[in-house]
Inverse folding.
């Protein structure tokens, strides 16, 4: 089997013909190395928004949500189809053999959860034959097909997942994600100019980073890469061909392949949280399951939870966070169960941010939390809620302190000196 | 089998969401009659041009013509996909059952002449089952799929052909083509305000009208309708639902179904011609076949041809017309064969127009040509070339006389008094 490589170009990397030609030059450079190439593309930047706006207008009087509609997928998937055809044309004009592949042609088999489908299978034979035969496969990302032959889409950022799934199916040596940043950073460089690009990061850390607000890769694509052990490299599409040396960008890989050991790899933040507080809860078993059961039934994801005894020893207070998008729905449910459960009052605070430190080194190192709390305390940042996993610690703070907290933690763990 | 109807909406009839909603109301009105409905849609007006412009840009350095490219089809077919999805969504929001069908889903099987593919087969079973079950099939026009599973398109105006092919496959009682005019006229109303809408026209006449410059229907769609005996109705999409009474628009049908007998049904014109003259041709056999053989090899269609003896009895002159689009290519060939064949000189005149009168009544009536030549002579219009078929007479004249000639002929055959 010849070596195979998957390359993926996001919307800003194929935003117009000039960018598509630039992407084609990067593909051409890899093609000259003799590897079999599959290239996954997003829609031209802005196109998906235009298509979604039309579906919104078409669904004005919709009873259901338009984004769970099979016809939504028919409309929105057309954006990637256009880019795939155009890039194939440009590659041919560069003298290369290339053809486009749509989701249904490969096929990328998905479930029928339209608008947020999951890939179930990617039969590799036809694609592998083309790629091994030296024809560059230009694949429309973001889209798949159900077993009934209807078009599906994978949700925002789904082209990353397409690329990883293709790489897994082809047993590619790597999946290169070309984007508008040149890798994964220790934190957001717009907040901390001393943020550094990580040359490598483990799947587990990347997964936490993506879930916790770093928007470099779609969370599901990282899950899939981890499950299938696909090395993923994030790099900038704004380099010139040939400049993409092996150490360019950030490689997302197995923990064991990372020589340099760090306790903390990055600091992430998210302003997409809302905090809901329930006051004066009756202190008896089953209260939590009542509340969170109802929220789960309504598809509201609850993230951080903390319960504390109120000053009067008879009752407790509870705080939890939900996504800002779900906040209104969550409050509606809280209001509905108030009398049933018998708590005294409730409040919502959308003026919060979640700041997290992530690192696989935490597993074997004590004192990580202590460093975090000390750094925040020194800057006068009040911690409202804490949640932890094996490799991350998240705190909820007042939103105004976000940048201060991020910079304090970045320095506290020595990330500016990597 | 329940009655089935095919409706087709062109680009201006689905140009934006407002128009798509208007189209949906027309569909809804037909749906309430209990007929099985298949609705064929074009791309939103302007979208195909945008997509074609991108393929032009992508093919800048193309060796071949981009419009014969399989990837051209991948890009351009996306326009109809969008409209099909949107109309299906709007129909659902009106409380109707509907789903979109793409070319590959039906499938509309085509040959692999990309950019101008011909439909080879439309297996009707899946579509018929849906339609008979009361689900409106919203079909992306203009597109099909090869036996290899690649997307094809049918050439400009191809959605008309899609609609007729679907109507034939479904054995629909009729194919209604909703467009921006309210029928087929005796001539172009922009030139002759007394032009009248024909309530019926035969396939043969419509075919000549379409070939000779009337742009209401794609020529191939009329050929197909004639071959498959599909009644086609051309009508305006700018009527209100319910106003589309049975005698609205123009019905294209078998000659025998037309009660009112006319000798001439319409006057058509085209300014897309160029006249090429060869002077001083050697007068021996085989000269014509040499010239026209070379033109045919280069895919240049020759329309009218006339040969005349030159003043010196040893040589002949020849005049013929080609499409303006092919003129440069034709002249190149003429120049190349000049020495080989040994004619003295050549000239091209693009300042010409072809004006034609069409009518199945000509078969049984003498004197039609005489009326034509007399009417033109009275207005001082000089005839350069004449060509005839069983049901039409065309003359080539100086372009400046086009409107004058059209009006003179329209009056001469009493078409303003239908």
């Amino acid at each position: 089997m010849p070596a195979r490589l998957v390359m993926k170009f996001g919307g800003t990397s194929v935003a117009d013909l000039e960018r598509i030609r630039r992407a084609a030059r990067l593909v051409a450079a890899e093609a000259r190395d003799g590897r079999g190439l599959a290239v996954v593309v997003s829609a031209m930047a802005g196109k998906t928004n235009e298509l979604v706006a039309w579906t919104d207008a078409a669904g004005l009087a919709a009873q259901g949500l338009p984004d769970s509609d099979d016809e939504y997928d028919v409309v929105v998937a057309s954006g990637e189809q256009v880019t795939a055809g155009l890039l194939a044309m440009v590659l041919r004009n560069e003298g290369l053999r290339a053809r486009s592949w749509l989701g249904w042609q490969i096929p990328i088999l998905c479930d029928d959860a339209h608008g947020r489908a999951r890939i179930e299978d990617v039969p590799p034979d036809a694609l592998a034959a083309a790629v091994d035969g030296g024809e560059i496969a230009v694949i429309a990302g973001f889209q798949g097909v159900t077993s009934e032959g209807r078009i599906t889409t994978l949700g925002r950022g789904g082209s990353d997942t397409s690329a990883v799934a293709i790489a897994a199916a082809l047993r590619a040596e790597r999946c290169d994600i070309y984007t508008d940043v040149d890798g994964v950073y220790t934190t957001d460089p717009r907040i901390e100019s001393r943020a550094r690009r990580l040359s490598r990061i483990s799947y587990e850390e990347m997964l936490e980073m993506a879930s916790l607000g770093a928007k470099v890769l779609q969370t599901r694509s990282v899950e899939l890469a981890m499950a299938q052990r696909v090395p993923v490299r994030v790099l900038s599409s704004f380099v010139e061909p040939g400049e993409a040396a092996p150490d360019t960008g950030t490689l997302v890989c197995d923990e064991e392949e990372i020589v340099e050991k760090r306790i903390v790899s990055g600091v992430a933040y998210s302003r997409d949280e809302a905090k809901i507080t329930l006051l004066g809860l009756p202190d008896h078993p089953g209260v939590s399951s009542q509340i969170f059961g109802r929220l789960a039934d309504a598809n509201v994801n609850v993230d951080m939870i903390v319960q504390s005894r109120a000053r009067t020893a008879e009752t407790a207070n509870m705080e939890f966070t939900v996504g800002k998008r779900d906040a209104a729905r969550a409050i509606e449910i809280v209001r509905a169960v108030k009398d049933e459960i018998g708590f005294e009052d409730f409040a919502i605070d959308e003026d919060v941010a979640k700041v997290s430190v992530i690192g696989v080194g935490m597993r074997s190192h004590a004192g990580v939390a202590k460093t975090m709390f000390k750094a925040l305390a020194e800057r006068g940042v009040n911690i409202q809620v804490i949640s932890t996993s094996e490799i991350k610690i998240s705190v909820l703070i007042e939103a105004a302190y976000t940048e201060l907290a991020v910079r304090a933690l970045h320095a506290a763990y020595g990330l500016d000196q990597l």
Summary: Chain B has a mean pLDDT of 91. Chain B is about 35% helix and 25% strand. Chain B touches chain A through 40 residues (CB under 8 Å). The longest helix of chain B spans residues 78-93.
